[in-house]
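Cross-posting from the modeling subforum.

Setting up a comparison between two proteins and wanted a second pair of eyes on the formatting. Protein 1 (sequence, then structure tokens):
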Amino acid sequence: MTEQQTTDHPVVPESSPTAEATPEAAVALPVPEGTSAEAGVPGAFAVAGPPPAKKDRRVLRATLRWTAAVAVFAAVGASMAFGITGMDRTDVPGLETEADGRWTFPEIVRPPLPSGRPRPFAEANVAGSHYADLRALVLPAPAAAREDKELHGKDGWLPTEDLLAEYSDTQDRKEFGQRLSDDGLRHIAARGWTTQDGTHTRIYLLQFDSGAVADELRTELAPYSEPEYPLRGTETSVADEDFPTATRVVGIERFVYTESKPYGAEQVRQAYLAAGDVLALVVQSRKGGANAVPFQQTVVLQSELLD
């Protein structure tokens, strides 16, 4: 919490436009009962005459000085408030946030674009194409995680059947594979890792010829209530109502699901992201329950990389 500074301000009497006071125009003001301006006689009246001119100037100067001082304090206070609101919570003494389970990722930098090529959501990029190397757009593993080498693929490109292995039903895998072929899937980049608490993460980026194709496929795969094709190891997946809406990345369509209880040995969380010509699938599973915070963190960071 920040301490508020208080300052004593002079009481400036209200003024009203009146004729210049003269001794002849003195006004009799009632004095509260039991007091007197001269002799303390009950019911007596005090006579208010014109104040000396010098005193008027002294009061005016004092008022101006106090007004300036208040303005300075207000400006300093505002700048301090701006500075604090612009800082991370952990930068403000006394407001450090206890560990909430989030992971530590390496510095994340978008890969360079080929010369003259726009970003996917630039006005000139009508198709929403990602011109950067798709393999460099996959979120890197966090610190101390063990990477899943099986998802490296050949030269960084994953075979379609490795993606289809995420789905539990044989008929679903066949149908989905045919959809990918019909929609002209260009290639898949992927990465996976396992953290020390046993959370297993898999990220798949599927690239198509245009954003329209990717968005249509996303509509079929990820309706609001539940995903079209269940992932392996899941019983019932429902829309994740607890995922913070304030973390949305502009331009990225996000549909998030969580496996509801009772689930099996592991709980599975999943998200579909539509970003221009790329459709992403993020999956996390963990024995006993997949924690919400690292999943949210992973989804948001991957969204930002695709922006």
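Protein 2 (same layout):
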Amino acid sequence: MRSSPQRTLPESGGRSFLDRPWSDYALFLVLVGPNLALLAAFTYRPLLDNIRLSFFDWNISDPTATFVGLSNYREWWGRSDTWQIVTNTIVFTVAAVLGSMVLGLALAMLLDRKLKGRNLVRSAVFAPFVISGAAIGVAFQFVFDPNFGLIQDLAHRLGFGGVPDFYQDPHWAMFMVTVTYLWKNLGYTFVIYLAALQGVRKELTEAAEIDGAGRWTTFRRVLLPQLRPTTYFLSITVMLNSLQVFDIINVMTRGGPLGTGTTTMVFQVYEESFRNFRAGYGATVATVMFLVLLGITIFQVRIMDRGEQR
């Protein structure tokens, strides 16, 4: 009789997690343990404390807090200024994300070419990103000031009429704050896109040009697909950064004009907690913002995973 051939199982590339010696676990704890401890102490514990505090009515000068359940959330939902502040937050975030990504990619594509003095221009574009937002806010007050600002002076020299009063009109005030933020943070998206362009496959672009594809077609069909992971990454990080803007708004407008003209949810957390001394209500706004951000981030990550699987 002919014996049947025996099947051999493929060898595993490494040990399973449970079969590792204790020294591997000890090394893991030594390397990862301090980071986990810092995250638990300075990120997750304050987050949980904030969620817990949102169910209390607490004046930060009072040692005791009163449990009020969902009253803070009901008040936030029913207040007349809530949806104005939410609208301000959405408008500012969308403008900041789209503006910084579009301008950052355009500058990265321009300065990726061999141009004279491009290293100096690259440094100039990135420099505002490392400057304090409060300092930039003070500097741009002299740009947008309707009486003696740079824009007013240029308009007068060119023979144009008076410039808008950026500090009295809520729409122009939001435009002023958004432009200031874009100028400061443009260097971040510029550097990330510039690094991504270094890894683009040039032969694909050359092949598209040989096939007769125009610049727009090459950009849309060849370049953008290769930059998709970078674009997903920037969409998440820029969104998170723009939603946390406080210093520029505090220096330039203090949330005004007309009360809440440029007030965002982050600035409202500061207002309620440290000006109105309602830390419980401020924690409620922060918790709502965290839950919305968590949902948006999970949605973006899932879209990014689906794009990588294609």
